[in-house]
Structures are given as structure tokens and as C-alpha cells.
Amino acid sequence: MTALTLSTAGAATLRADALVVGVAKGAKGPVVAPGAEAVDKAFDGKLATVLETLGASGAEGEVTKLPAPAGLKVPVVIAVGLGSVPEKDAAFDAEALRRAAGSASRALAGSKKAGFALPVASVEDAEAVAEGALLGAYAFTAYQGGEDKLASKDKKNGNGPKSPLAEVALLGAKPRDKAFKAAAERAVAVVEEINRARDLINTPPNDLYPESFAAVAMAAGKEHGIKVQVFDEKALVKGGFGGLLGVGQGSTHGPRLVRLAYTHPKAEKTLALVGKGITYDSGGISLKPAGHNETMKCDMSGAAAVFATVVAAARLGLQVNVTGWLALAENMPSGNATRPGDVLRMYSGKTVEVLNTDAEGRLVLGDALTRASEEKPDAIVDVATLTGAMVLALGHRTFGIMANDDAFRTSIHEIAEEVGEASWPMPLPADLRKGMDSPTADIANMGERMGGGLVAGLFLKEFVGEGIAWAHLDIAGPAYHEGAPYGYTPKGGTGSAVRTLVKLAERTATGDLG
After folding, report:
1. Mind telling me the catalytic residues?
2. Which of 25, 89, 139, 442 is paired with 221 by a 20 to 30 Å CA distance?
């Protein structure tokens, strides 16, 4: 991953391939942001004028490259838009800094080192810039640059994919200050785990399936001192995990339930995280229509987020016990697949009539939620690319939050907004439960079409242990980005919800959940 250093050099003396500065959108044109004073001086105080002449306005995400003048040790200056100038005495929003740093980092692909002289008025600002720069430098290249002779020739000619920015030198922070050092270390740990989640989401399903995902978890557990237990098909049959088995029985790759446990000797609270891990979702017998299959390797994004969060908690040494449950299966149509009309007996003992095999995520999560509840954690949060209905409701950049406790839902929403992940609290209307009544089983896996995302949440609620605070994050929209990259968000897997979950674990450790 891209290296991060807290530079002791000033903007005028730093030796690098480029220097990144901020520019804001003012009432009368672009305004040079704090941190760029030395650069503006090198332009004889006319940096804003030069940028305006080149068409820059300071709008968020805007990137303008300039040849550096005499007086700077770098050959290129990159001015990145921060959006509107803050009101008097206010600092730039952390998310604006994060996105700006990400945009600049993406524009610097192929460079060895770049200095970031964006506004850093606090430790939080420094961490936001670091996170954005590191997240923006992400690239998934594991399947590129093979032995193909033409591809090799293109790479030699400079036509192949550029490697990510190699080093981010953060200016304006205080390298010898413990708080700034800790913020930098946290940024590196969290971003590395977000990028681990992104890599898993982007991995083709012929290489990532339940057994191989479990093997990745086992390897990470050994590296970071996390206890990992894998329930294979034999164990799932013995335990009566009918949801996982029912979803996975149509595939040659059998299902797995993976338990990861990070424990701290002084922890007083336990947080359980449950992730939907459908490594490929064809829809099963209720086959998805043409055009909806191509990105279904991303249907394990919830499990990737949970996995990354547990590892991040271990790396950060958080004083809280964090248990992750990865409900892994591949949903395929075959002569052995579950049919619409079949009834499955879940781990909880409840029976479920399967009306649609493409509503499979709630089945594997139901089993995992019940199993997680048996350990009596203080709270459970499940994360899933669960419903297209949530995308229709909130779009592609916002995830929905449902819960059996209003205060817990509010806390998670506030945390998500704080770390820069767009989210919205959603209700669980009791009247929608009736639509899942079944004449054959205890419950059906489908209900009313309208409010489908809420119906899915109500289904999951049935499998949460009594008295346990629970929240459900439906990340179907932001988990996988199909459009052009923006800010620090790449094309493909995004690592959605990891920052929220890590912050939730930190707040649980300190007892500060609001």
C-alpha cells in the first residue's frame, strides 16, 4: 500500500514529484486555502488568479495541474478543489479534506512521492487528509500485467495501467506530537483494512468462494492474533444451519460460517458483527435477469467489511471484544438447488418458506444472527448488500440503518456521518410483518414489494436474541461503484461501512455511544 510519512519539510523545501494544495470556492472566484502560503508566495501571491485563468473555481473534486515556479523544489503543483469557503472562523469539513486528498492522489498515479499541503488545523484534519490520500491511491491490479506479450509491450511503452502513488508526505502535521503520530498510525491501519475489503470484493468469484474466503480469514487470524473458527458443511449439517445450507446447496462450492474473535484482556463490552457473504449471487432458481449478474461478485461486501473491521480492531488494540461472523455461500441454480416453495429449518428452529431464492442474504444472515446471539454480546450489527429496494430508496451512495433500538440506530447514524459515510435511519414498521406470514411455515422469506428493504430488516429482526441491541446496515447502494472514480472512491469495491464499524468499536470500548 502507499506509504505515509509526516513530513518535517515545508512546502517550499519539500523534494517530491508534486505538491498538492487546496483551493476553495469563494464568492468572487477561487481562494487559496491554508497550507498553501509558501506556494502562493512562489507565484508572487497570484496563485488564485492563475487558477482562475485556467478555469479553476475551487469546486469539490476539481483538479488543476500547474508547472511549479522558481522557489519550489517540486516540478508540479496540483490544486484540488475543497468546495465552498467555510464560514468565518470555521474549519474545512473533514470529509471535504478527505475527498480532496483522494482526488489528488488518484491524479498522481504513477508518481513516487507527493507532498500534501492541505488545510490541517487539527489532528482530525490530518487524519482525514491521510485517509483520503491513502484511499484515493488504491488500485486493484492483481489480475493485470500477466504474461501476454502485447500487454507487456504496452507496459514498456507506457500504455499499461499506472501504479498507485507510492508515498504520501503529509505537511502541516506535527511529526513529533504523539496525537498526530497516533492519528497517522490509525489512518494507515484502517485504510489498509478497507483496501483488504476492496480487494476481496474485486476478486473474481472463480477465485473467491466460501472455502477460499475462509482460508483468507484463517491466515489473517494467525497474523494478527485473532481466533478463527470455520464451520464447514459437516459442522453446518450437524448444527442445523438450514439457512446457510439451503442457499449454498446448489453450488459445487459448499457454504461456510466463519467466526473471528478479537479479545482484549481489559474489555468490558462485546460487539458482534455479522456479514452477508454471498461470494456470487446468480439468484438461484429465481435467476436474476440479464444485465444484473455481472457485478454479483460484490454480494459478499458485508462479510468483507466485518472481516476488515475485526482485523482493524486487533491492529489498533481496542479495549473491546469484537466477534465477526461471516455467513458465506454461493447462490447458484442447479439440480440440487433450493426451489421456490421449499421450506428450510433455520438454526433458530424457525421454518422459512422460500418464495424467492434471490432473497437469500436474509437466510444466511438469519442463521448467523441466531448463532451470534447465543454468546450474549452487548450489541449486534449486521452488514449486507441486502436489497435493491434500499438502492431505490437512498441511491448509490447512502446506506440504510434499521434497528430494534432507536438510540442505538441514532448512535450509528451519527458515527457514520462523523467518519464521512453517508447513511440514513430507516424504520421497521410493524404492519409490514404480516406480509411475510406463510400458510406452510413460520415465516416466508418475502413480503410486500413496497418497502422491500424494510421487510428484509423485519425478517432479520426475527432471528436476533431477546434483549440484545441490534442494527442492520443495508449497504446495497454504496458497496460497489460502477461509475467513474470520484474523491477517494474507486471503481469497484468501496469498503463501505468499515470506517463506521471501526468507530463504533472504538466508542463501545470507551463507553461513549451517546
Report:
1. 288, 362
2. 139
